[in-house]
């Protein structure tokens, strides 16, 4: 099984690339969706976050006000680190379970869409890693236009993440998304061809088909050995 790591920065276009993979029938494990699930009302993650940040972050229905919590953690690195530490075990377990289910279904290639791929050191489990990159000015202007916030607020949110230039240096594959949507689609087709090439022997052995092949070989070898020893007695 090939596990592709996909990351980027806020307003870099990572979600657009993720949707392009979906459109080509490549399953996505979306860490953001899992992060939402683990803080639903009454869950272990919800209890941890409310205990740490207080009931002021709750909406009237008891759910966490994600916008309010985001404002708190983006403005305070210590609180952001605390939130990541509280939720990391729940998110990691959710990601692992998603991968196992896709493995059981026989998928050979999957994409892990994880904003904190490098920060959480989950790039160790992915190959290749893909970074969707834009220059800093483009990122800022897109974020301001998308969310209608001030440039200062947008910069705070951007600065709360690992710099895209640093992520680019760590990546196996870079998708430059500073151009048009047509440019992005063209680059994506090149990347898609790369990540869907035939599996290496190691990747195949880690797939469900590889595991079943190994099991069959072991069973046949055991039967053959048994017959051999019987005939030799």
Describe the structure.
- The protein has 233 residues and is α/β, with parallel strands linked by helices.
- It has helices at 14-23, 31-37, 44-53, 66-75, 77-104, 136-147, 151-159, 164-170, 181-195, 201-205, 208-232; strands at residues 2-7, 28-30, 109-113, 129-133, 173-176.
- A 5-stranded parallel sheet has the order 2-3-1-4-5, with helices on both faces.
- The longest helix has 28 residues, at 77-104.
- It is globular, with a radius of gyration of 22 Å.
- The two termini are 43 Å apart.
- The mean pLDDT is 89.
Short description:
With 233 residues, this protein is α/β, with parallel strands linked by helices. Helix content is 59%, strand content 10%.
Could you name the key traits of this structure?
alpha/beta, 5-stranded parallel beta sheet, 233 residues
Write the layout of secondary structure elements.
Layout: E1 2-7, H1 14-23, E2 28-30, H2 31-37, H3 44-53, H4 66-75, H5 77-104, E3 109-113, E4 129-133, H6 136-147, H7 151-159, H8 164-170, E5 173-176, H9 181-195, H10 201-205, H11 208-232
Parallel strand pairs: 1-3, 1-4, 2-3, 4-5
Helix pairs in contact: 3-5, 4-5, 6-7
**CA radius of gyration:** 22 Å
Largest beta sheet: strand ordering: 2-3-1-4-5
Q: What is the H-and-E element order?
A: EHEHHHHEEHHHEHHH
| C-alpha geometry | globular
**What's the rounded overall pLDDT mean?**
89
């Amino acid at each position: 099984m090939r596990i592709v790591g996909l990351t980027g920065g806020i307003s870099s276009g990572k979600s657009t690339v993720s949707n392009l993979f979906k459109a080509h029938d490549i399953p996505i494990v979306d860490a953001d969706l899992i992060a939402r699930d683990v803080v639903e009302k009454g869950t272990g993650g919800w209890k941890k976050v409310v205990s740490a940040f207080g009931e002021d972050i709750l909406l009237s229905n008891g759910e966490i006000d994600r916008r309010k919590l985001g404002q708190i953690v983006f403005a305070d690195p210590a609180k952001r680190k605390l939130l990541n530490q509280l939720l990391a075990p729940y998110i990691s377990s959710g990601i692992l379970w998603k991968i196992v289910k896709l493995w059981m279904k026989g998928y050979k290639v999957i994409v892990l869409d994880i904003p904190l791929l490098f920060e959480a050191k989950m790039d160790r489990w992915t190959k290749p890693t893909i970074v969707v990159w834009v220059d800093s000015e483009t990122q800022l202007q897109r974020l301001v236009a998308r969310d209608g916030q001030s440039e200062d607020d947008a910069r705070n949110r951007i600065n709360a993440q690992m710099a895209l230039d640093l992520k680019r240096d760590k990546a196996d594959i870079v998708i430059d998304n500073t151009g048009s949507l047509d440019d992005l689609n063209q680059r994506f087709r090149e990347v898609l061809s790369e990540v869907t090439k035939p599996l290496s022997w190691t990747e195949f052995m880690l797939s469900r088909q590889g595991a079943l092949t190994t099991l069959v070989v072991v069973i046949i070898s055991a039967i053959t050995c048994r017959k051999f020893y019987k005939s030799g007695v």
